[in-house]
Specification:
about 300 residues, mainly alpha, elongated
Length: about 300
């Protein structure tokens, strides 16, 4: 009986002891972390971080997003792509190559005549001598040298149009062809007009000499334009623009020098044929220059 009573007392003591320890706990061990409030999650997470127990595992908050990993980047070197050769650059390259090859062939074939031409450019007496030789059937080499002038003046005018971005025609090749026809037509027309005047007026010898003078001066001018054309084709903008102005100044000087030589050729006819002389000056010399200037400035 006494043993049974002691057993009951021990059970009651153990029961109260278990209830006391149960109420003494601050957290229900069966409460899972995802069911806790956000504040309790943050507090529990902080306690887990500060805890030294390696088995404390804390679930992240619902709005937690892992940060992107930082990947070290190597320095990027930007390489400009190689631009394809445009049609305009290809045309200019082809024109310059043709100029160099053609000029080399003509210069090699007629070197001695080129030296005579340069001497006639500086000396009127040598010019008269070359004119007499050409009248005896020795004029073909000078016509070949004359073609160098047509080629260089055409390229100069074309590069001028390209440099100032003047839209004469939509096609660059068509523009080059029209410029070439204009240059050849202007000078061939002038020579034909002088030949017609030589048949009409009594001073045919002087008119033929002046026509030959135009050819000689043009040959020298054509070879002098070669370095300016090369600079205009491939140099920087500032240098190319300077080459344009320098070439134009040179053309004006050669034109004035040629006009002065023409006055010396026909000075004895100026008084007796003043009207015809002024008519020629206005029609053949002044009018084409005005037309060319208006064409390049876009006023025509």
């Amino acid at each position: 009986m006494v043993n049974h009573f002691k057993t009951q007392i021990l059970i009651i003591v153990l029961l109260f002891s278990g209830l006391g320890s149960l109420f003494a706990q601050q957290q229900n061990p069966f409460d899972l972390l995802p069911r806790l409030s956000e504040e309790e999650k943050v507090k529990t997470a902080e306690e887990a971080v500060n805890s030294e127990n390696p088995f404390d595992v804390v679930s992240p908050p619902s709005d937690y997003r892992p940060a992107d990993p930082v990947v070290p980047r190597s320095p990027i070197v930007e390489v400009e792509p190689i631009a394809p050769l445009s049609s305009k650059r290809s045309l200019v390259l082809g024109v310059v190559l043709f100029l160099l090859i053609f000029t080399t062939i003509i210069t090699t074939a007629f070197r001695s005549y080129l030296n005579k031409t340069y001497r006639a450019f500086l000396n009127g007496n040598i010019l008269n001598q070359l004119f007499r030789d050409s009248q005896s059937g020795n004029s073909l080499p000078y016509y070949f040298l004359y073609t160098v002038f047509f080629v260089n003046l055409t390229i100069f005018a074309f590069l001028w149009i390209q440099r100032w971005e003047l839209k004469v025609f939509q096609s660059d090749l068509y523009t080059l062809g029209v410029v070439a026809l204009g240059v050849v037509g202007a000078f061939v027309g002038k020579h034909l007009l002088l030949t017609l005047m030589a048949w009409t007026y009594p001073f045919d010898k002087e008119l033929k000499l002046y026509s030959f003078t135009i050819m000689i001066f043009s040959i020298v001018l054509g070879f002098a334009l070669i370095p300016f054309n090369l600079v205009m084709a491939y140099a920087a903008d500032a240098l190319a623009n300077g080459a344009i102005y320098a070439a134009c100044a040179m053309i004006v000087v050669v034109y004035l020098f040629r006009s002065l030589r023409g006055i010396f050729i026909g000075n004895k006819y100026l008084i007796s044929n003043t009207f015809h002389f002024l008519l020629y000056i206005c029609t053949v010399e002044v009018a084409p220059v005005i037309i060319i200037v208006k064409l390049f400035t876009g006023q025509l």
